[in-house]
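In practice, a research group might receive sequence data for several interacting partners and want a quick structural hypothesis before committing to experiments. The following worked case mirrors that situation: the sequences arrive first, and a predicted assembly follows.
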Amino acid sequence: MPELPEAERARALIESRALGRTVAAVDDGDTWVCRPHGPGEIDAALSGATFTAAHRRGKAIWLDADRGPPLGMHLGMSGRIVVDGPGPGERWDRFVVHFADGGSLALRDMRRLGRVVLDPDLSRLGPDAADVSRPEFRARVGLGRAPVKARIMNQSVIAGVGNLLADEGLWRARLSPRREAGSLSVAELDRLRRALRAATRRAVRLGGVHTGELVPHRRRGGACPRCGAPLERGTVGGRTTYWCPREQRG
DNA sequence: ACCTATGTTGATAC
DNA sequence: GGTATCAACATAGG
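A structural hypothesis for the assembly, expressed as tokens:
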């Protein structure tokens, strides 16, 4: 699930439920998820602190505390944030903040591809895909020989677009995922930005990227929900891609 | 049983 | 530098 919409919902959950609460102890024993920290390092940095703000850029989430470094969190491919149970210490809880009031904040992640780190490095993240301005989008996305789908999924170009949101946005903009990014006209770039922002906002509102219009049809044998043509399936930018061969030619 | 598939990122090689 | 490929993880399904 985790693309920008899921990350934003996780951030909002933390903002509404975890700010102002004091950390009693942290389970940071999964040094794969918490690398490069050793066990106890995050606990030592956060115990006694109170979270004061929850931020997000693209898929990256970070929390400020009233003392100590910010706490960075990334959901990876299968992670989600769970506040106040049920059952902190579930099998898939890879990182748990226990609050002094008895509650908890956990990163629940079966595949352990999520990450928790102190003082996260955000320097290689592009502007957030939901906020990027039109001139900035034109200048950053409309470059290079790579397919436009690979370009918009590059987190240092714009941050937050994953495999599903990319397919959804390209479909809404009626652009072929294979189009060379540098060949897009200004009008096409503007159309793509608009489509991506609309798809993103809608997914945040409705609960996640799976609530898109194209995404539910994104399976073998699926048809375009606008024109009914059988969807094409292939690999673009190394990722499984679905698109409408009738509407998304150019 | 064995193979492929899956929302992520990063390290590597050309 | 930009681009492509593979690996990391753990599970589900044909």
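Before designing any experiment, note the following. The helical segments of chain A are 4-17, 41-46, 134-141, 148-153, 163-172, 186-206. Residues 186-206 of chain A form the longest helix (21 residues).
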